Each structure stands twice: as structure tokens, then as C-alpha cells.
Amino acid sequence: MGVHLEPGAIAEVVIDFPPVNAVPVAGWLSVADQLTAAGADPATRVVVLRAEGRGFCAGVDIKEMQRSEGHQVLLAANRGCAAAFAAVYDCPVPVIAAVQGFCLGGGIGLVGNADLIVAADDATFGLPEVDRGALGAATHLARLVPPQLMRAMVYTCRTVTAADLHRFGTVHEVVPAAGLRVAARAVAGAIAAKDPVVIRRAKEALNGIDPVDVKRSYRFEQGFTFELNLNGAGDRARQKFVEGR
């Protein structure tokens, strides 16, 4: 259980927090650390970010927040998410997200910053932050869907399918769930076969021409999460979720 790195030319960073991959504070920081370690290894040519279990990521561990007094866990989770999302984006080699089942909340932050997404045919993507009394990762959702759909998804908390994102061109490939890891590694292999010096410079160049500073944009969103907690709306929504109301 946890986050572990399988090094190699095609490195794998694997998320494993049963039962639903709701990631605790330490887990987000570990994702950041493992991605940074993979990118720092000169032998690494591509990173596959994947997860064990029936879903890729259910977002932050809200129950961990509600078990704690005050806002320390909330603050730490926000910093952890920012670090993990940034580590995907800043990784000096391409990051391929392999997504199965549900990809929610913080999961959107991870895959939205990835270079490519390979998804299982059962994958769904959503940002239920409004129902959790929070805001954030619309920055990353905006990299996956058109602007008006992004707004609709934020306001209504609806999800979209891997097939939808494939039609938009933001999911590279949709495959049967049983073949997800193989498919992701096949795409990774095609990239790994290129000159690694050129690929690293290509990643740097592509980040440099992005029209939105994803790290700054996400931290701006997080400010509204802090505001919602100061006025009590955030805690009310989280407690309602924990109690199943």
C-alpha cells in the first residue's frame, strides 16, 4: 500500500491506497517524490503513472481531514496536491497516465498535467469539488474538455467518459481494462525509442509554450477553498460526505 516507483527506461509510479485510492497527505507528497526521483534518473525515458485497484484516484482522503482538529490536514493536503500535480508537469520526461475506473478530484489534477492519457473503456472523469465544499483542479480539467463543458462539470459535478475525452482528442487511446498497462507501456515504448536528449528538450519546450501557468492557476483556485473553510461551508460539505448524507 502507498506509492512506489518501479525504475527503468519506462519507469512506473504506482498509486495504491485501497479501497478507492483516496490519497492521504503523505500519499500526495510521495507521488511528488517518486515522480521527481524518476525524472532525475538519467536512465528514465518515460514515466507511466498508474494505480492499482478498481479506480485510478478518488481524490483527497476527506475522512483523514475530518478526523483532525483545525485545518492542518486541509492545508497539508492542498500543498501535497500542488506538489504532486507540479511534479507531473515538471517531470523532465513525458508522463503517461494510465487511467481505469474513476478519476475524480485530485486525480484530474494528475492526469490533466500528464503528457498523454491512455484510459480503460470503463474510465470516467469528474470534479466533485463543489459537493465537497472545495474548489480546485478546474485548471487541469480545462486541459481535458472544452471551456463550457468544464464549467458545467464544475457546477453540476457530472462526469464524462474516456470515450468522450477520446473524441475531444485529450485521451490518446481507449482500451479494454485488462489491457490498460500493456497499452500504456506500448505508447511509452514508442517514445522511449526516440533520442532521449531530444525528448527531454521537447518536454521543456512544450511546457514553455503553454498559455496557462498551471501551477499558479491551481494555487489561485485553492485560495477559494481556504475561503470556503473560513466561512464554514467547506467543513459542512465534508462532514455531510463522511456521514453519507
TrEMBL record:
Tagged with keyword Isomerase: no
Molecular function terms, GO-annotated: enoyl-CoA hydratase activity
E.C. code: 4.2.1.17
Protein name as annotated: Enoyl-CoA hydratase
Keywords (A to Z) from UniProt: Lipid metabolism, Lyase
UniProt record, GO biological process: fatty acid beta-oxidation
Superkingdom per UniProt: Bacteria
Family designation: Belongs to the enoyl-CoA hydratase/isomerase family.
InterPro entries: ClpP/crotonase-like_dom_sf (IPR029045), Enoyl-CoA_hydra/iso (IPR001753)
Entry annotated with the keyword Zinc: no
Organism (species): Actinoplanes awajinensis subsp. mycoplanecinus
Pfam families hit by this protein: ECH_1
